[in-house]
Amino acid sequence: MPIGVFDSGLGGLTVQQAISARLPDQAVVYLGDNKHAPYGVRDHEQIYQLTQTAVERLWQEGCDLVIIACNTASAVAVKRMQETWLPKDKRVLGVFVPLIEAVTERQWGDNSPPREVDVKQVALFATPATVATRAFQRELAFRAIGVDIEAQPCGGLVDAMEDNDLELAEALVQSHVAALLRRMPNPQAAVLGCTHYPILKNSFQAALGDHVEVYSQGSIVAESLSDYLVRHPEFAESGGVRFMTTGDAKKVSTAATRFLGKQIVFNSA
User: Which residues are known to be catalytic?
Assistant: First the structure.
């Protein structure tokens, strides 16, 4: 069966591209809810309902395993879905946990008590809605002790990237990094907690300095998914990649092509 990859807009393409590079034979269906993007400015109930609708749409495409490649949706909806709504034959996985496992040097399935880790100061860059959930802090606290996290809500950055205004996006990165560094002058690691942000990873790195290790999700999630499929081969299927959107397919295709620097063709969902 194909694996579903869902995002509120274009950002999840960074995860899809990494998955397809790591698992080139795996069938994938990507769904962008561009009609309702961005999610980062919506309230939690709206985010949950929109994510639920998108997951159900991917089930219609045969995707019994769905990756929520949107940090805001992962933070707000995934745990609630898993605990209260998900049928037994379906799986929904978020993108937070693989990233936190990488930062805290944990292997998948390591449920041992939290312990000391090498990284003591972590900068988190994410949408305002993701920051407000404090989901990253909670998940990290389950795995590590003695880690200070300073979160920076990056208002406007997703909108600038969706509009392909890279000049504005670069300026916003500089502004948000400067704001965080005033509160945490010496972070050891920085987490790009939005799937749009890897496109600007070099800009974050330059603003933070080479001494800061910058984590983004694409390759980390792809490797985690590869391990998951070894344990659950029933979710694997050979095939190509299809792209769907709730927005204007022609406009989204043009924006996605600019976003990735390669041709991407969306169809209407």
Answer: 70, 194
